[in-house]
Structures are given as C-alpha cells and as structure tokens.
Amino acid sequence: MKNTDFKPNYLASLGKDMPAGLVVFLVALPLCLGISLASGAPLFAGIVTGVVGGIVVSWLSGSHLSVSGPAAGLTVIVLNGIETLQTYEAFLLAVVLAGVLQVALGFLKAGVIGLYFPSSVIKGMLAAIGLILILKQIPHFMGADDDFFGEMNFFQLDGRNTFTEISHAFGVIEVGALIIGLLSLAILILWDMPFMKRIKLFKLIPGALIVVVGSVGINYLFINFFPELAIAGTHLVNLPEITSAAALGNELRFPDFGQFTNPSLYVVAFTIAIIASLETLLSVEAVDKLDPHKRRTPNNRELKAQGVGNIIAGLLGGIPMTAVIVRSSANIAAGGKTRMSAFIHGVFLLLAVLFLAGFLNQIPLSALAAVLLVIGYKLTKPTLFKGQFKLGHEQFIPFVVTVLAILFTDLLVGILIGLAVGVFFILKANYKSPYFFHKEQQRDKDLIRIKLSEHVSFLNKASIVLTLEHMPANSHVIIDGENSEYIDYDVLEAIQAFKDTAHERGIFVEVLNVKEVPVLDMH
What we know:
Elements: H1 14-39, H2 43-60, E1 67-69, H3 75-85, H4 88-107, H5 119-141, H6 162-169, H7 175-191, H8 194-197, H9 200-204, H10 207-225, H11 245-251, H12 263-290, H13 299-316, E2 322-324, H14 325-333, H15 340-360, H16 365-379, H17 382-390, H18 393-408, H19 411-432, E3 435-442, E4 445-452, E5 455-456, H20 461-469, E6 476-480, E7 486-487, H21 489-501, E8 508-512
Parallel strand pairs: 4-6, 5-7, 6-8
Antiparallel strand pairs: 1-2, 3-4
Helix pairs in contact: 1-2, 1-3, 1-14, 1-15, 2-13, 2-15, 3-12, 4-12, 4-13, 5-6, 5-12, 5-16, 5-18, 5-19, 7-10, 7-16, 12-13, 12-14, 14-16, 17-18, 18-19, 20-21
C-alpha cells in the first residue's frame, strides 16, 4: 500500500540526509563528467545539469528520494543531436524546447503512462541496473578501464562489450588502483555490519566518505613512497578547475536562439522530451518501490519538474536530465529520508566546482567503483530473484527477460522488451478469466452455464469467442451477465453473433442480463 500521507520533517531528517547527500555527490560527480565526455558535450555541461537537478528539481519534484541529473541512457541521443544540429549551442536550444514539451506533457497528465509498467518489469530493471553496475565497475575497480565512468550500454565506444572489457581488464590491472579498490570495498562491507551500526559515531559518518578520504591518503603515500603503485591521472576524478568568476563564465555555454527556423531542432527536442520522460517515469516508479515508506511520486508533477530542470539546464549550457536510478539508489542505500539529500548533493556539486576541484581531482575512481559495487549488490540481491521465482512464472519470466534484455542492450530497449513479455502474460491472464464455466449432463444434452465476470473487456474477446466456438452440438447454453458491471461492445457483438448462428449446430442459447447489439450483415 502506498503511503501518500508521509509528512517529511526536513530538520529532524538532516542527520540522515546530510551524509546521504554527500554519498550521492561522491557518486554523481564522476558520473556527470563521464556522461558529458561520452555525449560529446563540454565536460562542464554534466556538472551544470547535476547542479540544476539537485538544487532546483529536488524541490519542484514530488519525489522524496529520487535524484536528477545527466543520464547514461541519453548519451547516444545527445551525441546524435549535437551532430545533427552541428553546434552545441543549437543543441542547447533543443534541450530548452524539450523541457517546454515535458512541462506540457505534465499538464496533459501524460504521467499516467508510468502506472502501466508491470511490477515484474520494474523489479527486473532494478536487478539489471545492479548487475550492470557490478559488471561495469569491475574494470574501474582494477584501474583498467578507459571508458567513461557510468557507462551502461552493453556495446561500448571502444568496440568491446561489458564482458570482453572485464577479460581485457585482467590483463592490464593497475595494482595501486586494485589495492585501493579492495581496501575501499572492505571498509564499506565492514560499515554495513550490524555491530558497526550500533556505534553512534559510525552511524553519523558514511562509509563512502571514509573510503574517499582514505583513498586519497593511500594514493598520496603511493606517490611519495611507492611511485610504481601511484594511480595514473586517467583513473582519477577529472573536474575542470574554476579559479575565477571569469573562468566560470568561460565554461558556461548558451543556446543559439537563431536556430528556431531549423526543422531538425524540433525533431531532436521531441526525441529528448519523450525518451527523458520515459526514463524519468521508470526511475521514479522504481524509487517508489525501494522507498522504505512506500511514498508515491505524483508522475505529472515529476514531468513538470523535469521540464523546468531541462529548460534551466539548457539555458545554462547543460545536457538533458532525467530522474536517475543509480544516484537515487545511492541515496536510499546511504539512508536518505527526504528530498533534502538530493538538494544537498546539488549544493556539494556546486561547491566542488567553485572551491574543491583541486582536492576532488585526487580521488581514485577505484574507490568510487567500490561504492557502486556495494550499491549494485543491494539492487540485485539473490533474495530478489528468489522472491520473484516464488511468485510463479507469470511474474518470474518477465522479470528475467527484462534483466537479460537490459544487460545485453540498454535501459530503454530492455524495458520495452520486458514490457512486451509482461503484456503477453497480462493478456494470457485476461484470456483465462472472463467467466465462470459450468457443465452438467441433462438427459440427452449438455447444459452449459457461462457466467460472465464483473468486468469483461475487449482483451477477453478471444477467450470467449474460442469457448463459444467449441460448444458441443445439440447442447443448451446459458450465458448470464448478472454479475457484470461492464461488458465491452466487442464481446457483446461476439455473444450476439453466437446466439444468431448457434441453431445451425442444434445449440439452444439463452442470454440473460446481456443487452442485444446489431451484428454486421452483408446480406
């Protein structure tokens, strides 16, 4: 049961939200940079979007725990959009227009689409994201991956795929990065132990913060005493350093409003709006399932919030944003309670850009990979698979198909494949249960009673038609709609057609509490 009455107390929750916001910031920082890099956008663009997503969208959104920012699922769309429009400034105008379209979709109540994704598909998405995080972070964990941090697609830009990248990584391990990764993972596992949670000090300090500070310290020791173990710059955070207001101004880019006459602009804007909206609706649906309080996100409000976020991000030079499941999962795993944690992550991103770039650029990616490995495991625990299996094949098969489809393609394609399988099982379930069937022998003929269920939709037509077609000759059939509040016209037409022609097979038909409808007759 969803709890919509939960009233957040931001001040009381600050003790949980502050460290959670810090953890989300540490995870989001390299993701913002990596996604910008992969999208062919300026490196600073991802940070702009992360800041807007944290500081602005967190308060406009109705979600308590989702975190918005640049999404790995949009990298190809951004890359193609910049190429199509030829300049980044023209692309920024498309981002602004996409935001306007999203606001319009929110007012048109298009958010209802999010309610039509089956639970098995959403859980499959979470499990798949968890598995992908684990598989994609292993090379970074070993200091052996030059692809961007946060990449999610199966086929990579370097020509390798998720699995070949791991096998390649074992041949080019950076020992210093691996040592830091292993120590970081050990600290995070220790931090989650029940006996550690009983110590008040350790409850206040997130394990991820200890990991980050400790990893910087260890690498400092490597540089000074064991230079052969020092981590290469390609496996450290790489944040642009802003030394003055003028330098900040130079990093910001602005839309080219002269592109309004370019027809391609509207195609790119529409594509961004639809894909970003779908990914957002999927993410908030998944976050609601992970939320310990089971609070319900108002989907139409979420679309409006994302729209405003994209308008502002586009005006300031940022790439498109969505609600993002990886950062949202990090928020929940770190103990976030209210939207304050997402806001705090945005503030930390802004402060990092303005004042902390020098320190943050010393953070090894292998330490952050350890954080994501733990988050990935929490999303795809074996108990999730066992729980889905116990629910039966109607739930388990769409769940597994979704996991595999996302793993071997990308998020949106995988979701659509899982959705198709989920819809198949929904149709199958509807096919089976539109009526109660009772057959008894009476002297020389069968008496068959078909009592229609409360709600008989067009989805039930195939089942009813096949049942009527297989009625035995010379039988007595009673079709009763006494319990039905609604019978779809297609079904009424099928019943009427059966009644009109049943005498040809010697079948006597009684139709009770079902209205007659005209049947198309060409004679």
